Every structure is written in structure tokens, then in C-alpha cells.
Amino acid sequence: MRQPWRVAVVGGGIAGLAAAVRLRDRAPAGTEITVYEQSGVLGGKLRTGELAGQPVEFGAESFLMRDPTGAESAAVALARRLGLAEKIVHPTVGQAALVIDGGLRPIPGGTLVGVPGDLDRVATVARPAADADTDGGRPLVGPDADVSVGALVRSRFGNEVVERLVDPMLGGVYAGRADDLSLVTTMPALARTARVEHTLVGAVRAAQAAAPRAPGAPVFGTIAGGLSTLIEAAVTASGATVRRDAAVRELTPTGTGWRLTVGPTRDPELVDVDAVVLAVPARPAARLLAGPAPAVAAGVGALDYASVALVTMALPQPRLPELSGFLVPSTEGLLIKAATFFTTKWGHLRRPDGLALVRASVGRYGEEAHLQRPDADLAATVHRELSAVLGTPLPAPVDGHVQRWGGALPQYAPGHADRLGAARTALRAAHPTLVLAGAGYDGVGIPVCVRSGETAAEEIITALGGSAR
After folding, report:
1. Contact 68, 189 (CB under 8 A)
2. What pLDDT is stored for residue 2 in this prediction?
3. Is the pTM of this model over 0.85?
4. Which of 76, 79, 415, 458 is the most exposed place for a label (fewest CB within 10 A)?
5. Interatomic CA distance for residues 99 and 327, integer angstroms
6. What's the rounded Cα separation, in Å, for the pair 46 and 108?
7. Residue 37: pLDDT band with limits 50, 70, 90
């Protein structure tokens, strides 16, 4: 193989950029890394904008500080690698609420993504089914089985716990329904303990015990100045050549690697590389895989996605509760599914003039028709619903922004992990220098995407002959 290596990273989101940084750190000196981004903006769902003169997130807001084992998360480790550890800040208000019967009730503690480990603690928002979580003498889930989160929780705690606790929690993260989402992919820690424990309360407690958190230790963090700072630092550290507005339309295997067809059909550019990290969502990945790996393409392309809109408003001196925000069960009949009080939750964003930044999330899987409304209509509906939930008319916004994320959130049906495992096994066997990375495969959240990109980079390095460092 010629030296230096040439590696293409298709997709300039956080997974692709994490792969590029890892390649720079671990691949032989002189490796040529090129990031191809179809749009003109890097960062994927990490996008810091400006509203009323200050930075505000128009996409992902924060990251977990710890991974499921309790160790430092991949996002924190990447921030440290990029020299941003001292810029990590944490929420100053952590308590959130649920909208129940039109009013706000604090989210009870002791749950795992809404699944309770102590039934008494959730009684203020949901009534668990009486005596349903009995010990049947065998584990809740078989050794190789996957079920929907909703099916498992309904069978053990009843409908109200699902509808008032678990569904809004999962809806806030995935814009999906508990009855449709894979336990293994969305709640892997609970899936592991459910293969051992005989009751769901026992499985939740075991999962919590497996990843203990020091009292008072922060759960979430973000970067002062905005998460786009993380993106910019990753680009710099990777030393990659970045090609914006560069759509990769075709991947063709060659005798020694891959040929990329880049740009418009009437004037394509052909680029030869040794390896490719494919860090794009499942459907565009499937289109690129259709030629070299049609069976893999079919499996990958089956993943569906939900679309959301984020409506952010700058409100002059509103009366807001001392909460980080709230979640909305679908049974409440509201358009909004979640809200965040940015300038309450994050102390570093508070302003002396009392101007508040409030963001609401709109859009659940299967209800995309609501997102066809014009921006002004969405913003007006959000303002009206927020006022109703808070029980007081909010002042008119002095600034606002509607960010639409079409096809943004993967909907992992039960069996996703097995389907993905089979696809990756087939891809490694046929094309070891073509690797998938990103949320469509390994899960949502910044740490998961960072780890996915780094793992893809390590696979490429191994396939090309191993690290020289």
C-alpha cells in the first residue's frame, strides 16, 4: 500500500470529526484525512447560533459526563483532548417537571429514563399497577432477546407509568414512543440487568448500582461559548482537509481502496482513497452502500427517523419556575413535547437584564404533519402552550428562532443491535476498509457518537496495517 495513507471521512458531524481526530492521533504520521460534508455547515446536530445577542444551542444542548460504567464519558475525554476541559460547565438548576393534567409536577427521582426503581417515589405522577412486578422465577428478558421498552414496562408497572413517565422521557431524547423503541439500544444498562433479574424494580436497581454516581456529581455538561466550539477545535486538532458543500454520491471499490464520486452529476470529481469512514445517517449510507454491499445497504436503510423542530424565544423578564424545564406526555394533547429554560438551567447564560431564553421541542414520530406549519405558526402555538402550562401569560418575545431538523432522530425498533451487528460483520468480511459510524448505528447522544467515530477510526487503522504510534 502506498504511503501516506489517504482516508476519507464522509460526514462532518461529531462522529465523523471524532473519527478524524482519532485518525490523526493514532494513524501513521503523514496520513491524509479529508472530511466531506454535504452541507455548508460542520457539526451535524451540534449547532450554536445567536439569539438576542448571546450564544444559544439550536441543536444538541449538552452531554453526559459519565458513561454507563461510571467512567468519564467519551465527550468529556474528547473535550480534554481538545484543550476544552476547563470550559465545561454544568447546570445550576437540575430539577425538571412533567406536565400532568395541565400542570407541572416535579419529575420524581430514582428512575432510569423514567423506569422506577422505587414505586412509592413515582406515585405523585403515576400509579403503578398493583402487584404486577412479581418474581416469576426467571429473568425478565431472554439472553439474546430484545423487546420494546413500552412492552416491558407496561407488563410490569402498567400503562400509567409508561404514558406519564417513560414515554415523555424517551420522547424528549428520541421523539419516539416507548412502545416502538428497542430496550437494548435505548436502555442498554437496563437490558443487561433484565437478563439476570426477575423483577423490573430489581433490574432498575441493579443497573443503577452498576454505575454509581458520587453524591452531587454533575450528570450533564456543556461547553461555555457553545458546542460549536467543540466542533471547531476538533477540526483544528484533526488537521483534516475539510470539504464543505461536497456531496459524496458514489463509492466504488478499487483494487487498493475506494473511489469517491464527489459533487454534481454534470461535473463529478473522482477521488481515490485507501479507506472510508461513513459517518452519515442510515438512509444516505444505504444509498452509498447499494453498489458495493447491497445486502448491507438493505439492512442499514431500514432504519426510520423522526423529525423535530426547536423553537427558541427570548422573553423579557418572564415569570418562570425554578426548573430546568419540563417534559410533556403525549396524552396531554399539546404540540410541544419538551421545554428548556436555558437561562434558568445554565447559570453561565443568565443575564442581568432578566431576558430569558426558552426553547421548546415540537414533533413526535408519526406526527410529522404538525411540522408542516409555517415558522410563525409554530412559534405562536409554542408561546400559547407555554403560557397555559405555566399558568401565566408570557411576554411577547423580542427575538426568536425556529430550527427544523428533518429526519434527525433514529427510531431503533427492537432487534436493531442484532441487525446492525449482522450488517457490520458482513461489511468487515467484504470491505474491511469501509466502516460505519454515528447515531444511526450506535445510539444518540454526543458521547455515544464520539465513541462510535473513534471506534470506526481504530477499525480503519487496523484494516490498513495498524498504528505506527
Report:
1. yes
2. 53
3. yes
4. 415
5. 6
6. 29
7. very high
